[in-house]
Amino acid sequence: MNFEQFMEQAWSTHGDNAYAVGEQLKGARTLLTQSPQVAALARILEHVLGEHLGDWSSAQSELALLRQHPLCQDDPQALSAVRVAQAALSLAQGLVPEGAKLTDEERVRALATASAICLGRGELGNASDLLALCLKLVALLPPGSAGFQRSLAVAANNLACALGELKLRSEEQVDQMIQAAQAARQCWQQAGTWLEIQRAEYVLAKSFLRAGKIPQAASHAVECLNLCRANDAAPFELFFAHEMAALSAQALGYGAAFEAARQSALQAFVALDAQVQAACQAERDALLA
Q1: In a 10 Å sphere around its CB, with 0-12 CB exposed, 13-18 middle and 19+ buried, how is residue 124 labelled?
Q2: CA distance 221 to 37
Q3: Taking Cα atoms as reference points, which of 20, 15, 16, 75 lies closest to residue 42?
Q4: Can you tell me the distance from the alpha carbon of 249 to that of 217, in angstroms, rounded to the nearest whole number?
Q5: Which residues, 6 or more positions from 124, have their beta carbon under 8 angstroms from its beta carbon?
Q6: Judging by beta carbons within 10 Å of its beta carbon (0-12, 13-18, 19+), is residue 282 exposed, middle or buried?
Q7: CATH code, domain carrying 108
Q8: How confident is the model at residue 145 (pLDDT cuts 50, 70, 90)?
Q9: Across the chain, which distance is largest between two alpha carbons, in Å?
Q10: Amino acid 100: pLDDT
Q11: Cβ-count burial 177-195 (b if 16+ within 10 Å, e if not)
Q12: Within this chain, do residues 167 and 271 fall inside the same structural domain, yes or no?
């Protein structure tokens, strides 16, 4: 089994059997043949051993060994990926990272990754605190700083969604939800495709709607739908874009606009395959209520 086959199998099975995959990951560095593979291995080590299993010691031990691998030592990007993973694991435990100094961009990536780890472990408060620190650091970086946008976009988007799913939110959590959604949108503008930007607009619209800020929700819903139309989006994307347009129009009291968007969403729903329809059933039912 080569490295790519191993990674595909590990990612596909780790959710159901994290312990077994974690054991397989120990020593997986022997499969490395190219330096770009180092970052991929560091990512899954941190995710499975750290986030899923909370086996911080094993995760750090494997990363330390990975850091000594010749493919890592000879590639600054690979070495950076391992440093960030090590720092993220420490931050997720509430510890100060030790070892080599990180660049500001690496600190942002480490904080964003640590936030994602804590969120995956159900530690919403810690995830929010870490993302807040991350955003404060980003605000201090000089214009044009790069290398961290994708990590931050993913962490911020997931936190915004998690906060949005709470049945009750404090005012602080509402502010955190909006701030995270805005950060995700800004980062995807730099690091993503139109699809990721469009989905970030959807999350922003939904976040504002949940916050009771209807005009802002409607504005982002329009932008989400415009991006779908401009890029010939698939029915899945169109369903959610029209759904958000409908909900925003309804909240504004625009009955005709609500009905038009609702019908468009239902038409897109019909074009989905059965498995995807099942995943979207709750949103469809809400439109029919």
Answers
A1: middle
A2: 38
A3: 75
A4: 9
A5: 118, 162, 163
A6: exposed
A7: 1.25.40
A8: confident
A9: 64
A10: 65
A11: bbbbbbbbbbbbeebbeee
A12: no
The token pair that represents 156 in the structure block: 């911020």
Beta carbons within 10 angstroms of residue 176's beta carbon: 22
The amino acid occupying position 276 is: V
Mean pLDDT of the chain: 95
Among 188, 211, 234, the domain boundary falls at 211
> How many domains, the chain?
2
Cα 154 to Cα 6, 161, 186, 199, 289, distances in angstroms: 24, 11, 11, 12, 32
Which tokens go with 116? 């994602």
CA–CA gap between residue 99 and residue 89 (Å, rounded): 13
- Mapped onto helix, strand or coil, the DSSP state of residue 36 is helix
Q: Give tens-digit pLDDT for 219-263.
A: 999 999 999 999 999 999 999 999 999 999 999 999 999 999 999
CA distance linking residue 240 with residue 235, whole number of Å = 9
Q: What is the mean pLDDT of residues 18-42?
A: 94
* Angstrom distance (rounded) from CA 134 to CA 126: 12
Dump the DSSP string for 142-203. Answer: PTT--S-HHHHHHHHHHHHHHHHT-SS--HHHHHHHHHHHHHHHHHHHHH--HHHHHHHHHH
- Residue at a domain's end among 156, 182, 211: 211
Question: In the numeric block, which tokens belong to residue 7?
Answer: 């990674």
pLDDT for the residue numbered 99: 65
Predicted TM-score of the model (pTM): 0.93
Same domain for 100 and 192, yes or no, is: yes
Q: Do residues 103 and 154 both lie within one domain?
A: yes
Q: What tens digit of pLDDT does each residue of 87-138 get?
A: 999 999 999 887 668 999 999 999 999 999 999 999 999 999 999 999 999 9
| Structural domain boundaries, residue 272 | 212-289
Helix or strand or coil: residue 64?
helix
Same domain membership, residue 176 and residue 58: yes
Judgement on whether residues 289 and 187 belong to the same structural domain of the protein: no
